[in-house]
Amino acid sequence: MLQVSAKWYNLLTMKRARRITQVGLPLLVTIVLVTVLLRQVEVAAFAETFTNVHTHWLFLAVAILWSAHFVVAYRWKVVLNLFDAGIRYRQVLLAYFANLPISKLLPLYSGDFVRAYYFKEEIGLRKNTGGVLAETIIDVLVLVAFVFLSGILAGNVWFILLSGLTLVIGVVFMHQAHKLAQLSLLHRIHDHLEHFFQAFLLLKTHKRATIFIVVCTTVMWVATLLFTWFAFHAFGADVPLGQVFLLQPLVIFIGLIPITLSGIGTRESAMVVLYASHAASPTILAVGFSYSVLGMILLPLLVSPITFVTWRRILMRRQSLELPFDANKLH
User: Fold this and answer.
1) Which candidate in 48, 108, 178, 252 could, as Cys together with 258 as Cys, close a disulfide (CB 3.0–4.6 Å)?
2) Mean pLDDT of 197-218
3) Helix or strand or coil: residue 114?
4) What's this model's pTM, rounded to 2 decimal places?
């Protein structure tokens, strides 16, 4: 008995250590990178950048960036209703903002997959997770399409070849993913895979919905790029819009490297290198940190009460479903 207890204790300890590492290590790397970046610029020059900020440009940038979340939430509703769930936009919007702090806390897109739990009873965990994966792949493919177009405009052969190859592979995978469930090697988990990849099959057969989802994704990325352009103007740098559309998708991809929280630090480092010929380092860092603070920290903090309330309701509902009797009769 003691051996079994010790085994479970060690297992729980390992899981806790893994969770601490998953959040603690990216947090440590984030702090180190931000410290290194700030030490490379003069404090006075960096502070002056914020002192002379044109607030109307910055407010416009924030309004565009935050408004895009409503579009992304509606996109999620379209994906969910491919399963004939009949879920209303208000429900999806609350769940989306409830998950926002979680999605920004965890590296890469891993926090987004927590969304699969919100409508677990209505759709099913595997189907919902497959839907989130499909959205994530579409996010990446649309961003790659921006890089492809930028490569054409800039005449960069490597941009064109690499992004074009990625687009072809991604589109083929989206079109054929549902067939993975039919592979004989995976027959033991056929039912699981069939549910998981159902979203891909539905996207293939519902072309109007797919086009609408791609349009919503494009709006999301355009909003992110416009934030960068307006933020440069807010801090007094006249960076051409074409350069932002050329360089910022690369910055976003670098920010997806899962070594920091929400790409903070890696994104700004990439911006300092790529925009070096267009603006001074204090200005570039001001733009980068404005995106990180306003989009990755402030907004999740503002909606965190929704996270608390929503998860409290989810846990209470699931506890009530597990009760084998009417709890009201105990009072």
Assistant:
1) 108
2) 93
3) helix
4) 0.84
